[in-house]
Structures are given as structure tokens and as C-alpha cells.
Amino acid sequence: MKVSLNVQLGQHLTMTPQLQQAIRLLQLSTIELQQEIQSALDSNPLLEVDENEHFSTPSDATPDSSSNEDTRQDDYETELAAGTLDINNNTDIPDDLPVDSAWDDIYNTSSSGSASHDDDDEGFEARSTVAETLYDHLLWQVNLTPFTLTDKTIAVCLIDALDENGYLTVELDDILEAAQNILPDVDIDLDEVVAVLHRIQQFEPAGIGARNLQECLSIQLKQLPASTPHRDNALLILNEHLDLLASQDQAALLKKTKFSEHQLLAAVALIQDLNPHPGGKIGQNDSNYIIPDVIVSKQHQRWRVELNPDTAPKLRINANYASLVRRADNSADNTYLRNHLQEARWFLKSLQSRHETLLKVATCIVEHQRAFLEQGAEAMKALVLRDVAEEVGLHESTVSRVTSQKYMHTPRGIFELKYFFSSHVGTSSGGECSSTAIRAMIKKLVSQEDARKPLSDNKIADLLQEQGIEVARRTIAKYRESLNIPSSSDRKRLL
Fold it and tell me: Which intervals hold domain RNA polymerase sigma factor 54 DNA-binding (predicted)?
């Protein structure tokens, strides 16, 4: 093979580490940003928390001078709460830090934590308290019960065979065999397994250890006081007419039970108050705390948008260390300080850019969704990433990053910024209606329907058509399922 030298002329795009840092900070959630800031404080001696300065209060806010639209300045007061970062101007770093990028595959927005963390470091979730499982909860009750060694072994085998909803998933013969294998020198019979099962069925939560739905609900009814109104009638329906109850055949139930209509409806209401999945209550108490990144409030007939000052501490350059840097000195100590000073400045600029971009996007969203803030979800307007990107002068990928895992506190609750984006359908007047508004309308119609004659998907589509919203039946079914609303046949009630 002949070896030769060739000269090629080409172009390629290179992202600087500073731009990559800005993009990474832009897509971090509040908790991840706090971890990133703490990591920067731990690794860079030139960065410190400004303990003396405080964020300005909402009443001290002034209109955002960075807005390029006069109408927005008239309608909104914006405040960059975390924007006054102390940055030394004697630097060759550009004043304007670009944060826009068209490359979506640089970072994975679903990844959590900072890239600067070591692999062995525990994340936030790892440091959280581990929730008690159903197995642990029942085993704790077993240890409090005066069981013999044999009965305790059977109880542990039974608990181990329960599913996440608290139902027994194996036959009692298999439990007997498992206990016999653990205690081969002890003679165990099936009646002893049944006795231990009945004891476990008295544990909390009520209904645990049942082998089917009928037994689960019967256990819960039997644990109610005997004086509970309509308790015996509810037990009769469960034990003898569960199939008629499932099919909601009121006429047949009245004929079979000989109850009056009032007695039947009261007994059915008592059954409906029971929990068909008793084990699901255990281990589901994890608290997911959300810290809003943006706070929206209405003051003096104006909607005001500001960053939450509690999302991140206020940082500054350590003046004492910065004063030690000498330009002409190439010693190791001076090089160390100079490099960390430059990193600190870039970090502050990236953080400042994140705040400005987040505030700009949040303000644009509020401007478009004023009707939602004032009237509710039914007034939500159709909005897509492209609309906001064009208005604020950013790329769609940047808007996608800044709205991912960021939350807005409004008078109507806390919502992820992505909640305000939705597709649209046409109306008879030629306008548009957002899918979020249609979902809210469906939910409202279902909540107001007659439980005995629930609205079908076709009927809901007809009612929306009367309001000028043209939605197909299949679309109604899709939206209904996304709201976890059962079909009309499953929503039908005797009450």
C-alpha cells in the first residue's frame, strides 16, 4: 500500500466546554441544580455563597428591562430574582454567553445528577428514607403476635406469597409444603395453615390475606362494628349475589334479596366504600417534594412572573482569593488560582444565563395562558414549543430543555412548564381549542353526569359539538383513558 499525504478542507461544529456547561445547567431540575452548585462550591475555592445579600422581595420587583416587547412590559412585571451574581469584569470572557443549540443529542435530559459527581456518590433518592413494604409491615405484626415457632413459620410463608395488593397468590397446599420443608421434623397439617391464615386476615390493613375479591371485601365488612347500618345486608349481597352486583342488575338484586330500594342502595354504598386493593396502601407514602422554579401571582390586575429565590443560593467570587491572582506569574499556585477564577466566572455566567432564559420562557407562557390562570383548564389555549421559541428568539430544543422538570407555582396550583403546551383541534367557528381544555371539559361532563345513565363517548362528542368543538369519538375515548376515566358501562352505578 502506497503511503501519501493529502490536504482536505472541511467545516465542522465544535461546542466549547463553556457552552456545554450552559446547556447542562439549563436542563437540570431544581434539585439537580442545587447539587451542581454544591459540587461547584466544594471543588472551587474561588466560589462562595453570599451570606449578606438577600433576594429582593416581590414588592420590590421592577419591570424586566430585557423584554423586547412593549406590550409585555405593560402587562407583566418580571423580576430576575437570582440574577445579580457578582462577576469580575476584568476578564477576557465574552459578556454574552450563548445558550442556544440545535443539537438534541448532546445530553440526555432524562439523566439525573451532575456529570461532575463520582459514580460512588449517593444521589438524592439514595439518601431518602426507604418506604416500608407490605412484607415488612405484616412481618412486624407477626413478631407482635404470640405465635409458636411452627405458626410463625407458616405466617412468614403466607406473607411471602402475598402480591402487592395483599392477595394470597398460591394454594394452601403449597404453603403447607413450604413450611414442612423449613421444619422437616415437625408434623404440620392443613388445618393449622388455615388457622394461621385467618389470624393474618385480622392484621392491618383490613382485607389482607384474602384469596379473592369476595373474601377481601367480606373480611373488611366483618371487621366493622356489628352495629354498622346495613352491614348484614352488604354481607348477604357479597356472599350470595356478587355476580348481580358486578353486572349492576338492580332489578334482579331487588328480586333476589327482597330488600327495599333504600336498603339495597345503602348496602351497595357500604360495599363501594371498601378497598379492593388493601395492600396498595402500604409502601405508597413516598413524599415527592416539588420546589417551583417560577412563581406567578396577580398584583394590581397584572400577572407577575418571578424566579423562586429559594431554588439556588446566591453566589459570588471570593474577593480575597481573586486579589491574589497575578497576570505575569506562571507559578503553580498562581496558575491554580487563575484557572479556578476562570471556571468560577464561567459557572456564574452559565447560571445567570439559565435564570434569564427560564424567566423569558416562563413569561411568554404566562402571556399566552392568561385565560387559564383566570378561568381554569377549560380556557387553556393551544401552544407548542415552536410558538414560544419563535417569540423569545431561541431554538425549540432550548425551550424543550428549559421546560423539562421545571415547575411553575400559580394561584391554581403547581404545574410543570410542559403542562402548558398542548395540541389543538378545530372549532366550527374556525378557531382552535387545546387538547388540555377538551380533557377538562370531558372531566367536567363526567363529573356532572347521572350515575345511573353515564355519558357514552358518542354523547360526549355530541355535547362538545354543540359547543362548536369538533372531536371524533375515538379522540374522546383517548382523552378519557388518559384521564383514567372508565367507560360508561364501568361508570354506571346503582346510586
Answer: 335-493
Are 378 and 441 in contact by the 8 Å Cβ rule? The answer is yes
First to last CA, the chain: 88
Q: What is the per-residue pLDDT across 94-145, written as a single tens digit (0 to 9) for each?
A: 444 444 434 444 444 444 443 344 444 444 444 445 567 888 999 999 999 9
323, 338 in Cβ contact below 8 A?
no
Residues in the chain: 495
pLDDT tens digit string along 347-373? Answer: 999 888 889 999 999 999 999 999 889
Which residues are registered as beta bridge partners of 102? none
Q: What is the DSSP code (8-state) at residue 300? A: T
Distance separating alpha carbons of residues 76 and 69, to the nearest angstrom: 11
Distance, CA of 406 to CA of 27 (rounded, Å): 9
Q: Are 472 and 461 in contact (CB under 8 A)?
A: yes
Q: Supply 133's cell numbers.
A: 413494604
User: Could you read off the pLDDT of 373-399 as tens digits, one per residue?
Assistant: 988 888 888 888 888 999 988 888 888
Nine cell digits for residue 399: 425551550
Residues whose CB falls within 8 Å of the CB of residue 133, separated by 6 or more in sequence, listed in order: 282, 283
